[in-house]
Amino acid sequence: LMNAAVAQNVEPARITQHCDSVSLCFSKGLGAPAGAVLAGRRDFVAEAWRVRKLLGGGMRQAGVLAAAALVGLEHMGMTLRRDHDNAWRFAEGIQELNSPLCSVNLTAVETNIVMVNISGGCPSPAELCEHLWAVSEEELAKTGHAVSVLLFPWSAHTVRAVWHRDVSARDTELAKKKLEFVARKYQE
C-alpha cells in the first residue's frame, strides 16, 4: 500500500477508499522490526480482535514497536522513493546488459519490485537464484567482490527482486555486477 501510494504520489487513503478492509505490515517497506495494523468496519475489526485473542495473539509493551512503526511512517516517502530508485537502477542495468539470459520490462517497474524474465530455460529461475546467491573464488578473483544476491524464483520464467530500506545504492550496483558476472558465465 505504502509503496503504491509513494509511486503514484497520492495519499494511501485515496487507494483504499473503496476497500472494505486494509491490512498494513510495518515490517515490510517501512522497516519496523514487527507490527501490523488492520482497518475496516467496527464489527469486522472487533471480530478480528476477538479471534486474535482466541488464538493467543497479544503483545506486552507494544509501544516500543509502535514507535518504530511511527518512525517508518514519518520517513516512508523518502525511504520508499529511494527503494524505488534502486529497483529502477537495477532494472536499467538488466536492460543495458542486453543478455539473452534475462530481460526486464522497464515500464512495469513502478515500485520496489523488479520482475526479471529468464529466457531459454537454462538456467531455470531457481538455478539462476542459486548462482546469484553463491560466491565463488572465480567471482572474487575477477570482480574483487564477494556478493550474494537474494532473488526469488517467481514462476517458470521469472525471478522477483525486491528492495527495502536495508539495500543501498551501492548494494544495488554490486547486485547488477553480480548478475552481469553470472550472465557472462552462462554465455561462455
TrEMBL record:
GO molecular function, a single term: L-allo-threonine aldolase activity
Keyword Lyase attached: yes
Alphabetized UniProt keyword annotations: Lyase, Pyridoxal phosphate
Gene Ontology CC, one term: cytosol
Essential cofactor(s): pyridoxal 5'-phosphate
Pfam families named among the record's database cross-references: Beta_elim_lyase
Name of the protein in question: THA2 aldolase
Organism: Eolophus roseicapilla
The encoding gene: Tha2
